[in-house]
Design brief:
By secondary structure, the protein is mainly alpha-helical. The protein has 28 helices and no strands.
């Protein structure tokens, strides 16, 4: 009896979401087009970081080779973007990585993903709101800061901010009101601010190429010494002092380029907000993949161009890590351009803030609609067709955090939530592509085109056959590397599931060992190198097993190429970056997850819609009587 109860408990944790598109219609308004999605992705990704990050990375990590750092970071981000694009084509529903996990790997992992996405968006909204407030205050002479420090100081160092930020709360409330007015109105405001931001960045790039000099990419140590002496700047660069590298295009070597790429990777975070608009886009199967890839491409061009312009305008080691663009324009004698930079930075912060606030209520809405969070959060306004309660609730929480906390210690938690979501989406693509077709699932329903193909219909109607593979395939070990069927079967799907779990464990082990045993690897310790080589070799063998399995022939408007290589590389990059985070961040992550598990096991597991759908007819009818109530 005990073992049966344990088995049932495990089944509840692994139950997957089933969506019947023939009976289900979206409660939200389908009014967004592809251009709206590109603007949303560019606005949320191309935030204030482009005005600050390039200077800090160029000065401290990569020098002029920061352009290569951004290229590497863009390629790593594209790996995740392609995986999101395929799922956007498969499952055009609200929920982003949460929904993708739910239909593929089960309820518990889906809740973990959604819970961490909520954390990422809340902290992102609060921190960007405080940055907006600080930037505006800086432009107006810091009057707000002085007033708050004189009259509203909070004496709780290490816990609360130095003073409550009322202006950031006001900004969040204004954008919350805008989001509740309707998605079309929000998209229009976002497009206006994004276009202004892109125009300002275009001006910066043209200015850099006009006023810049290629000589700044080929500096020697003597040039750095003489220039530092003549300019009178307090950089204390001396001949033989390698604080600012050895000059040239790669003053810190290729290690500096890779270190800069790890930092630049976070500059591309934000495109995933596009994936939360599945029920508000007119043609989601095509618009979501195009929106994700196009926004990443535009952001890469902007980051590449701005970083190239900066390092051409002035020597990399003279860049100001906090405000590189104003100092660069001052260096070339164009002080008046600082006004354009100020306008662009405020527009960038506005779109970044909107990009953080837009997906947050939609993830909450999707989880509440599925019963994993409180049902009242799934309420949709009949007039504006937006998740009104979720929008107001999430805005209030973000405003409270922006009002009270400095958030510097919490910002790294954003990284864990986002990177975990990226990893799970890549794993879902890896698993799902090799599974037998299941016509009752959301991703199968989304795969068909407007005009059904007779061949595809035939394969769907006969798709139950591979569910029960032949006995000889089950018993033969050769069928693992040499499958007998050209279509996926249950056996080949099981092989991929097990292999994916093994690869996940190997990647976590390899990344953990690489980060924790970095000194041993640098010293060339033989056993450490052998250990890493062994883990990589096993990973390659398991990847080969996955590659040998038959792939699903389901027609989609977009598919990730080079399977299983690209999803595995995406998982590796994301896990490696997660392992770089400090111990304090992981402790805070554990506390947040503990709170989430309390909600899930106390409420979500019992109220899950999948539990309701799988209940006996009598009990299902009883549950339907109370389905509209706010539990």
């Amino acid at each position: 009896m005990g073992s049966q109860g344990l088995l049932d408990f495990g089944k509840k944790l692994l139950r997957r979401k089933v969506v019947d598109w023939t009976r289900e219609e979206s409660k939200l308004s389908r009014c967004l087009n592809t251009f709206d999605l590109v603007a949303l992705g560019v606005g949320s990704t191309l935030g204030a970081g482009v005005y600050i990050l390039a200077g800090a990375v160029a000065r401290e990590d990569a020098g002029p080779a920061i352009v290569i750092s951004f290229l590497i970071a863009a390629l790593a981000s594209v790996l995740a973007g392609l995986c999101y694009g395929e799922f956007g084509a498969r499952v055009p529903k609200t929920g982003s990585a949460y929904l993708y996990s739910y239909v593929t790997v089960g309820e518990l992992l889906a809740f973990i993903t959604g819970w961490n996405l909520i954390l990422s968006y809340v902290i992102g909204t609060s921190s960007v709101a405080r940055a907006w407030s600080a930037t505006f205050d800086e432009l107006t002479g810091k009057h707000i800061e002085r007033f708050c420090q004189e009259h509203m100081t909070m004496n709780a160092p290490g816990v609360l901010a130095e003073y409550p930020d009322i202006f950031s709360v006001l900004i969040i409330f204004i954008l919350t009101g805008l989001l509740t007015c309707g998605v079309k109105e929000s998209a229009m405001v976002n497009k206006i601010f994004t276009c202004i931001n892109v125009l300002v960045l275009g001006f910066v790039m043209v200015s850099g190429f006009v006023k810049g000099s290629v000589k700044n990419w080929h500096l020697t140590i003597d040039d750095m010494y003489n220039m530092t002496d003549d300019s009178g700047r307090d950089n204390q660069t001396q001949v033989g002092d390698l604080k600012h590298g050895v000059g040239g295009f790669m003053p810190f070597g290729f290690n500096g380029v890779l270190s800069g790429a790890a930092t630049c990777f976070y500059a591309f975070v934000g495109f995933d907000c596009i994936a939360t608009t599945g029920e508000e886009v007119k043609n989601p199967q095509k618009a979501i993949p195009i929106g994700i890839v196009a926004s990443l491409l535009i952001c890469f061009v902007a980051y590449f161009g701005v970083s190239a312009a900066l390092t051409l305008m002035m020597p990399y080691y003279l860049l100001d890590p906090n405000s590189p663009l104003p100092i660069a324009f001052q260096y070339v004698g164009w002080e008046g351009a600082n006004y354009a930079v100020a306008v662009g930075s405020l527009c960038a912060l506005s779109t970044s803030l909107l990009g953080s606030m837009f997906p947050m209520p939609r993830v909450i809405y999707a989880m509440a609609e599925d019963g994993l969070l409180f049902k009242c959060l799934a309420t949709v306004s009949k007039r504006t067709k937006t998740p009104a309660i979720a929008t107001v609730t999430s805005g209030a929480v973000a405003a409270a955090m922006a009002f009270l906390f400095d958030l510097k210690d919490l910002v790294d938690l954003m990284s864990i939530g986002t990177l975990l979501a990226y990893s799970l989406v890549a794993a879902c693509v890896l698993v799902l592509r090799y599974q037998p077709e299941q016509p009752n699932l959301a991703y199968q329903m989304a795969s068909t085109t407007e005009e059904p193909d007779t061949n595809e219909s035939a394969s769907t109607s006969g798709s139950q056959a591979p569910f029960l593979p032949e006995e000889e395939e089950k018993e033969s070990q050769n069928s693992i590397l040499f499958p007998q069927n050209s279509d996926p079967s249950r056996f080949s799907g099981l092989v991929v599931n097990i292999s994916s779990c093994i690869i996940g464990l190997l990647i976590v082990s390899c990344c953990s060992f690489t980060v924790l045993g970095k000194d041993l690897l640098i010293k060339g310790t033989v056993w450490a190198i052998v250990m890493i080589a062994l883990l990589v070799l096993i990973c390659l063998i398991v990847g080969l097993i996955i590659w040998r399995q038959p792939e699903s022939k389901t027609k989609l408007s977009f598919k990730v190429p080079l399977l299983p290589l690209l999803p595995i590389l995406s998982i590796f990059v994301n896990v490696y970056l997660m392992m770089q985070l400090d111990k304090g961040t992981w402790i805070r992550f554990a506390v947040w997850m503990f709170l989430g598990f309390i909600i899930y096991f106390a409420y979500g597991m019992g109220h899950s819609m999948e539990a309701t759908d799988s209940a006996p007819p009598d009990s299902e009818r009883n549950m339907d009587l109370n389905s509209d109530s706010c539990k």
